[in-house]
Design a protein that fits this description.
67% helix, 0% strand, globular
């Protein structure tokens, strides 16, 4: 398992694990749904639905990795950096820095 001294060092590796366009799209869909669901949960105060957030977010991402990217998600080896990478990539997609 490769070690990283900082997120700055990790993020290029993270992007290299997301070269497949469908995988990146599935990440974007999952992250978007997490934002929508979290907004709904806060608005309705239906806190039990918080349990579905990881299923939604990671479910789409893992389908992208296992079936399209054909690699293991970085979540298994670098959980914190991977979680942060998901949101930085989401932002970079919105800003047009990463193509979907």
């Amino acid at each position: 398992m490769k070690q990283f001294e900082s997120f700055r060092d990790f993020y290029p590796y993270y992007l290299s694990e997301h070269q497949n366009r469908i995988c990146r799209r599935l990440h974007f869909i999952g992250s978007s749904l997490v934002i929508v669901m979290l907004s709904f949960i806060i608005y309705t105060q239906a806190w039990i639905w918080l349990l579905l957030l990881p299923v939604c977010g990671y479910g789409f991402a893992w389908v992208g990795h296992f079936f399209f990217e054909q690699n293991k998600p970085a979540t298994f080896t670098h959980p914190f950096y991977s979680f942060l990478g998901d949101w930085v990539m989401f932002k970079d997609i919105i800003l047009g820095k990463v193509k979907i």
